[in-house]
Recover the amino acids of this structure.
């Protein structure tokens, strides 16, 4: 899939998308990792399109500050799962 994207859009565009994924993942890990979500966030940031991850970023930014870190992390994991299911993306490792 990455190879096809690079052929169609060029290496520069691919690297920009990867940098965006990394920035979003870094933010999730810095502000919403409850100690149990690192692998989950990493997997989903690798599988979802940057546009979908932008939706997650917006969702996370809109979470009430009154929620605990555990509650925020749970909400983000549920939102990530919902997006993956809607896009028919398989997230289970074989």
């Amino acid at each position: 899939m990455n190879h096809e994207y690079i052929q169609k859009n060029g290496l520069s565009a691919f690297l920009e998308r990867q940098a965006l994924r990394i920035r979003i993942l870094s933010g999730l890990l810095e502000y919403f990792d409850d100690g149990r979500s690192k692998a989950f966030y990493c997997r989903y940031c690798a599988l979802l399109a940057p546009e979908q991850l932008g939706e997650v970023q917006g969702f996370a930014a809109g979470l009430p500050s009154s929620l605990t870190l555990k509650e925020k992390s749970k909400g983000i994991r549920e939102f990530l799962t919902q997006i993956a299911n809607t896009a028919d993306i398989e997230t289970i490792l074989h």
